[in-house]
Amino acid sequence: MPFISEAASAIKSRFGFHNLSTSEVAPATVPSPPDLLKSVSRENSSLSLVAASAVRSIGEWEDDADASSGSMAQQQTQSFEFCEDPSFWKDHNVQVIIRIRPLSSSEISLQGHSKCVRQESCQTISWTGHPESRFTFDLVADESVSQEKLFKVAGLPMVDNCIGGYNSCMFAYGQTGSGKTHTVLGDIEGGTRRHSVNCGMTPRVFEYLFSRIQKEKEGRKDENLKFICKCSFLEIYNEQILDLLDPSSSNLQIREDVKKGVHVENLKEIKVTNARDVIQQLIQGASNRKVAATNMNCASSLSHSVFTCIIESKWESQGVTHHRFARLNLVDLAGSERQKSSGAEGERLKEATNINKSLSTLGLVIMNLVSISNGKSLHVPYRDSKLTFLLQDSLGGNSKTIIIANISPSLCCSLETLSTLKFAQRAKFIKNNAIVNEDASGDVIAMRMQIQQLKKEVSHLRNLVNGGAENLDNDTSIISCAGSPGPFKWEGLHGSFSPFVSEKRTSQKKDFKVALVGAFRREKDKDIALKALAAENQAAMQLAKQRQDEIQGLKMRLKSFYEEGEREMMSEQINVLQNKLLEALDWKLMHESDSSAVQKADVDVKAEVLHDPEISNKEPGTPWRSSINEENEFLRMQAIQNKAEIDTLHEKLGFCLEEKEKLERHANDLLTRLEEERSLRDLKKGNTAN
Ligand SMILES: Nc1ncnc2c1ncn2[C@@H]1O[C@H](COP(=O)(O)OP(=O)(O)OP(=O)(O)O)[C@@H](O)[C@H]1O
């Protein structure tokens, strides 16, 4: 599909991105933002990685530290603070950030420094077209926000969330050339932030991840804490999944099962132990992406790339082994404007539409999720595209998700910028339900001992609440409360009464009170959670039953449609009507030729009549001729009616088939959801029991 590459380069050159030939070298004085992944895939020649870094016309960008500070001063009158809210992720699971990139020199030469957006605060931005529209997001990063700053605000908490056992996902959205790859990868060739100020989120995230893992391991030596990190890198192009770490594979399939959840079958996963390993995989993936791009004649901006890292940790405490699991997805989406402005038509448009199917389904998924969060009950078409199917957890599911919507501030991109802002605003309403993915297992004796211990604790605390010092036994017990001030010794009422002992008692009593309050709070929380779970379960069961009834009814209808010959009857009816119509048309044609003969005779007769003064004064129409006309008219009407009936039946048939497909899809979704609900319920039950 060379047209796509052509269209891509046309758009790029319109916005000022000129690919240099391999012989061209970037000016040595300008720090490079090479975005290796993109640059290698944009070039079809076999560039070396080093040469590839010079592919992008880096000299024209205003992001050169000196240039940007100079020109920014001209353009940006006010700069807003860009900093994170440390408590954000406690209460939220979705964060939407707008990133404005600097103007390119081509944009400046086309439209000068005029901009289509005006930042109002660190959270609001106005689109200055007609009518002017104001948008509010979690954060707005202006041109001056550096890669490091963005990482600290968005990337660092994402890693912390993963270490805490939450799935996390970062999407970079925006039109071609708006800075998605700069944000996600940036200059990966330069290594991590120690080596390049332009390296993007991914290298920084992994550098921080491994430093945190090291710290955690050092701080929790006694728990024998272990981490395993596995990476995979894939590309979705034209609704096909390619493994960028194993170019020999192609068109991989997405599977879903209770154990593994949604996953890509046969996708290569590579164990990584440090940031260098990850960068190596990124570079390898980038070079394979180049191969894929050459084979398929595509450019990277037409495909989505998903870099995934699975972080598993395992530790032991009191004979119980804990497992934690988190999936980190870093997604660089295809350029969002492609379909509209690629200029493709006909077959090519169809192809471009297919390429963009993921993106439009993403939009639809988000729209439906927003409607659902507004109380509507809607089907979310996750399975309609590979991207949304694969990342369904990140959209409305079990994940903490960041969407970075990249925009160009130039007037040249005004409409695309508005559409990105609108997309981002809708995404703000997505509600995710992130939970800590943790499991515990251990030898039965250790678990029993823990349960025993907890039972003792509860019974002692109960007694205490009942004011029952008198109920307490004389035994001295060791009580340990999870989250309480630590294990302490219970001496019943039979201690000595020295002032020292009394003081000790008072402090013990205080400890008890604190522990008691904690234990009750925990018990209450668990009670509430249990009740909510039971209610949820009940509702889910009811829903499942309702759905099952619906499915049953629909199955019956389908059965009768297929088995009891309803379908055949309809097809037969259509055939009969079609035959009738054909007959009628034949008959009509036949009579039309007759009537033309009649008309000819009529003309002859008329001529005779004209020449015969005897009959020239009589009526012109004869009864047999008008009866033919009447019959013709009648048949014509009948034919029209028959045609209309056939059309209706066709429509009905089409509708029935569509309904059937929808219902089957719905039934499948429901079964999957039911499975998920059940496993979630079991998991929750397990957690509550622990
Ligand atoms: N915030 C920024 N600061 C400096 N330069 C930037 C910034 N954002 C983007 N750029 C530069 O803009 C150019 C285009 O960015 P990038 O390739 O990341 O766009 P993209 O959205 O990924 O495009 P595509 O959809 O075509 O892949 C690159 O040269 C990049 O270095």
From TrEMBL:
Residue ranges annotated as coiled coil are 437-464
Query: What is one GO biological process annotated to this record?
Result: microtubule-based movement
Q: Does the keyword Nucleotide-binding apply?
A: yes
Residues noted as binding ATP in the record, renumbered to the chain = G174, Q175, T176, G177, S178, G179, K180, T181
Indicate the segments forming the Kinesin motor domain, all copies: 93-430
Keywords carried by this UniProt record: ATP-binding, Coiled coil, Microtubule, Motor protein, Nucleotide-binding
SMART domains for this protein: KISc
Q: Does the keyword Zinc apply?
A: no
Q: What GO CC annotations are associated with the protein? A: microtubule
- One Pfam family matching this protein: Kinesin
**Which top-rank group of organisms is this from?**
Eukaryota
| Molecular-function GO term, any one | ATP binding
Q: Which family does it belong to?
A: Belongs to the TRAFAC class myosin-kinesin ATPase superfamily. Kinesin family. KIN-12 subfamily.
List the protein's name: Kinesin-like protein
- This protein's species is Hevea brasiliensis (Para rubber tree)
